[in-house]
Amino acid sequence: MNCKEFENNMIAFVEDALPSIKSTEMQEHIDNCVACKKLFQEVKSTFSLLDDNSIPDMKPFFMTRLEQRLENENVEYTIGTKLRWLYSAAAVVVMLLGVALGITIGKNITPVQLSDNSQQYEMIQDTDAEDFGLISFNDYTIESYILEDE
Questions:
Q1: Do 26 and 9 meet the contact criterion of CB atoms below 8 Å apart?
Q2: Are 40 and 30 in contact (CB under 8 A)?
Q3: What is the pLDDT of residues 13-54, one digit of tens each?
Q4: pLDDT score, position 90
Q5: Cys-Cys with 129: which of 47, 65, 74, 137 at CB 3.0–4.6 Å?
């Protein structure tokens, strides 16, 4: 038997669930292999701790104090949960009011008519052109400005 086969069958060996022939092979391997013997002893001691069914003695009123503590934590949790829901609901209401207000204001705004203002825009351009010593903004190009300096 090799170590890998031993490891695969070790739990069944600890629980005495192997056939007698296999158990004999396992015992022979433990006697000959130091690493597997150490592993077997560790697993066997772990199983013995798990099989120990003794329940430690509890202090008096332990369960009463534990139940009271859990109840207090539950009350604090429910208050915090309710406050979070309240804050969330308030945030949603504020957002909805903002959207409704935006829609209402948007409906009352009249659109700007750009076609009537085109003459006024040209007049402003010409005024700016005159301020810089230009005769007319529409008649003056960048090429003529560059050529004029030379």
A1: yes
A2: yes
A3: 888 888 989 999 999 999 999 999 999 999 888 888 877 766
A4: 92
A5: 137
Task: Indicate the pTM of the whole model.
Answer: 0.36
Alpha carbon distance 48, 14 (integer Å) = 10
Helices 34-51/20-32 angle, 10° precision: 120
Question: What is the identity of the amino acid at 8?
Answer: N
Nearest to 43, CA basis, from 18, 8, 11, 19: 11
Handedness of CA 59, 61, 67, 69 (dihedral sign): negative
Instruction: Look up residue 114 and give its DSSP letter.
Output: S
pLDDT for 75-127, tens place per residue? 666 666 777 888 899 999 999 999 999 888 888 776 655 555 555 555 555 55
| C-alpha triplet 132, 134, 136: angle, nearest 5° | 125
Q: How far apart are CA 107 and CA 98, in angstroms?
A: 14
